[in-house]
Write a structure and sequence with these properties.
By secondary structure, this protein is an alpha/beta fold. Helix content is 41%, strand content 14%. The chain has two domains: 127 residues, N-utilizing Substance Protein B Homolog, Chain A (Orthogonal Bundle); 199 residues, 3-Layer(aba) Sandwich (Rossmann fold). Strands 5, 6, 7, 8, 9, 10, 11 and 12 form an eight-stranded mixed β-sheet that branches. A four-stranded antiparallel β-sheet has the order 2-3-1-4, with helices on one face. α1 packs across α2, α1 crosses α5 and α5 runs antiparallel to α6. The longest helix has 22 residues. It starts with a helix and ends with a strand. The structure holds S-adenosylmethionine. S-adenosylmethionine binds next to α10 and β6.
Length: 414
């Protein structure tokens, strides 16, 4: 296959992804890529689509003055991709030619290939997306955040979300083979050049796993001791299960999804760690005995992961949040009943919304008067991250970028 054809294939798949996300409301993980798309083209197509989704508002600002009326979505997405590639420094003639070729090939776009040509030729010599205001989160996310954290914090979060996120890994205790990177204060490593993860030193030997620095903090806050009986309630795909097992705990990992649990199994096998796996609905399951510690990484809006999953803000509308908040409360109430006397429960969500964090904590304390918050005691944790209630609010603009998370440790009083 000629190089030109190859890149058109990746571009065409990228436009297909954009059409599915922005037209059909599919999450990126639900989009089926064309069969037979080669591995590198597949990766490139996904990367291009994610970058366009991350910069969508900026790209549309560049295009708007050049369009008299909005073209059909399939044409608009070809233009969006081309603008992104120009901003990345690709040569103008190559980008225009390939965009026009793409338009000509599509049944829904061929009649507008002339428009694609004209618009892209009218682009300024230099397309500088970074000079434009960072895209804003949709109202259902933005408004509660402005209210809770203020405009300045929200602007800092949005500026971070417009950037390509770094890749963090959690090293296994005693790991010998590690890729090059920056050691973060909490023990995670931020990779210098992520490249192809499966080829990085120590991947095959299971010396580490990919895990955002913020996600790893929930287990660090648990301060698990070797030999403790620990339950990981919503475990899959298992990054936190690995941490718990690596700390020497006797881990039971539970998840409602069998396919997702299969990934926990794979991760345990690669890293040589052990846990008992249970596929069950936590709202109906009952343990045989109480646990010393429980981690509840509850299902949530995932609004803390917009840096990595910019598709979410283009697909979701916030209508699921109330149901998720109710599910989190039900899971909390159930899991609290599985603690042995003196045990502790760490509740966390990768959400930025106070309803799934700070407010969820206030509500559980109200429902369980015997419960108290255990303040975090970790030397590297900046005190300003600790909330008035004793929870930890992690924001995407911290430490050069991390997932948004809320974490709180609960224990019975006395
Ligand atoms: C945020 S993810 C967990 C991520 C995981 N702790 C990790 O670190 O890799 C939430 C998980 O909750 C699971 N889940 C949702 N409802 C559940 C239920 N009723 N019982 C058990 N697991 C559930 C989902 O299948 C999903 O894997």
């Amino acid at each position: 296959m000629k190089a030109g054809t190859e890149s058109v294939t990746a571009r065409s798949a990228a436009v297909g992804i954009l059409n599915a996300v922005l037209g059909e409301g599919l999450m990126l993980s639900q989009v089926a890529l064309p069969e037979g798309l080669a591995g590198p083209d597949r990766a490139r197509a996904e990367r291009l689509a994610v970058q366009v989704l991350r910069q969508l508002d900026r790209i549309d600002r560049v295009l708007r003055p050049l369009l008299r009326k909005a073209p059909p979505l399939a044409v608009l997405n070809i233009l969006r991709l081309a603008v992104y590639e120009r901003a990345e420094g690709a040569a103008a003639h190559g980008v225009v030619n390939e965009a026009v070729t793409l338009a000509r090939r599509g049944k829904r776009t061929t009649h507008l290939s002339g428009l694609v040509n004209a618009v892209l030729r009218a682009l300024p010599e230099t397309v500088d997306l970074a000079a434009l205001p960072a895209p804003q989160m949709p109202r259902w996310i933005r408004q509660p955040l402005v209210h809770a954290y203020g405009r300045e914090a929200v602007a800092a979060i949005e500026a971070m979300q417009a950037q390509v996120p770094p890749l963090d890994i959690t090293p296994k205790a005693g790991a010998t083979a590690l890729p090059e990177g920056e050691g973060l204060p909490s023990g995670s490593i931020r990779l210098a050049t992520p490249g192809q993860i499966t080829l990085a030193p120590g991947y095959a030997s299971g010396d580490w796993w990919v895990q955002d620095v913020a996600a790893a903090m929930a287990v660090r806050l648990m301060r698990v001791q070797a030999g403790e009986r620990v339950l990981d309630v919503c475990a899959a795909p298992g990054g936190k299960t690995l941490q718990l097992a690596d700390a020497g705990a006797e881990v039971t990992a539970l998840d409602i999804s069998a396919p997702r649990m299969a990934r926990v199994e794979e991760n345990l096998a690669r890293t040589g760690l052990r846990a008992r796996l249970v596929v069950a609905d936590a709202l109906h399951w009952e343990p045989e005995a109480g646990f010393d510690a429980i981690l509840l990484d509850a299902p949530c809006s995932a609004t803390g992961t917009l840096r990595r999953h910019p598709d979410l803000q283009h697909v979701k509308d916030g209508s699921e949040v109330a149901g998720l908040v109710a599910l989190q409360a039900a899971l909390l109430d159930r899991a609290l009943g599985w603690l042995r006397p003196g045990g502790r429960l760490v509740y966390c969500t990768c959400s930025l919304l106070p309803a799934e964090g700070e407010e969820q904590l206030a509500a559980v304390l109200q429902r369980h008067p015997g419960l108290r918050v255990v303040p975090p005691a970790l030397p590297w944790l900046p005190p300003e991250w600790v909330t008035a209630q004793g929870g930890v609010r992690l924001r995407p603009d911290y430490w050069g970028g991390m997932d948004g998370f809320f974490i709180a440790t609960l224990a019975a009083q006395g």
